[in-house]
Write a structure and sequence with these properties.
Elements lengths: L2 H10 L7 E6 L2 E6 L9 H14 L7 E6 L16 H19 L4 E5 L3 E2 L1 H7 L3 E5 L3 E3 L10 H11 L1 H10 L2 E3 H6 L5 E3 L4 H13 L3 H13 L5 H14 L5 H12 L9
Parallel strand pairs: 2-3, 3-4, 4-6, 5-7, 6-9
Antiparallel strand pairs: 1-2, 7-8
Helix pairs in contact: 2-3, 5-6, 9-10
Length: about 270
């Protein structure tokens, strides 16, 4: 057996997860943090999360990736013991890799947050493209009270909520209600707790009714231009539109359907 075949066999072998759950069905990939009681993000949890995200990169049928959590917490953040010694470097590298995957993955990322999302858990949720949260959810970065800070939050939060709010959140160490998080743009929408799952399901269905390649390329156009100057971002989005989107059968079908005033029939090609 040659090396290429061995690599293919390794990629084709599903991994058994201990701390997360991964399910892919009907165009939806559901990644669920499953380390009760607080879904603490240990090195092992982060490693499994990275493996799951990596496995989704080439699954072209996936229209949306949903990140959620079991239990009362979305996540209480990093494992405290992982801050000490050599594991600190491994922990931060694994967490950085998560955001590398989020940047590279060309599927929309939807976080559904029920319960507290603290520290690394807060920025993990906020780093997704769309964040729906229950009214009782809480967000924040209390790490400063323990003499540390989150490097990803230090880099990403100013881009999400602006410099002043980022300084306040990271240096102040306080918590935000879901309503406050929505007001400053940290999350997309706050919903009554009892309606969160139903509203999330309706949101997910909108993605399921779309075309996989069109959703993926549109996400690629937006995400690829976020850190570019406006002329470069426009050039990037135009390149995706002309050279990738318009080469798909679904783009042609969508335009024909609009002109014919009918519902498009997607082939995901």
């Amino acid at each position: 057996m040659d090396d290429l075949q061995q690599d293919a066999d390794v990629q084709a072998t599903p991994r058994a997860y201990s701390f997360i759950q991964l399910a892919v069905a009907e165009g939806v990939a559901r990644v669920t943090l499953n380390r009760p009681p607080a879904n603490v993000l240990s090195v092992e949890v982060l490693s499994e999360l990275n493996h799951a995200l990596d496995s989704l990169e080439y699954q072209r049928e996936v229209k949306v990736v949903v990140l959620a959590a079991s239990g009362k917490y979305f996540s209480a953040g990093f494992e405290l013991q992982d801050h000490i010694g050599d594991r600190a470097y491994v922990m931060l590298e694994e967490f950085r890799k998560v955001f590398d995957h989020l940047a590279r993955l060309d599927k929309p990322m939807l976080a559904v947050v029920a319960g507290p999302a603290l520290g690394a858990g807060s920025i993990l949720a906020a780093g997704c493209d769309i964040v729906l949260a229950g009214a009782s959810a809480r967000f924040g970065h209390p790490e400063i009270k323990g003499g540390v800070f989150n490097p990803v939050a230090a880099a990403l939060l100013p881009r999400l909520v602006g410099r002043k709010k980022a300084f306040e959140m990271i240096l102040g160490g306080g918590l935000l209600t879901a309503a406050e998080a929505e007001r400053i743009g940290l999350i997309s929408r706050v919903l009554p707790d009892e309606r969160l799952e139903a509203e999330a399901a309706a949101f997910i269905q909108r993605f399921q009714e779309g075309s996989a390649p069109i959703l993926q390329m549109t996400r690629r156009a937006i995400a690829g231009g976020l850190d570019l100057l406006l002329p470069d971002a426009l050039g990037h989005a135009q390149d995706v539109y002309l050279n990738q989107l318009m080469a798909t059968e679904d783009a042609e079908e969508g335009l024909k359907a609009v002109m014919a005033k009918r519902k498009p029939v997607w082939t995901d090609k």
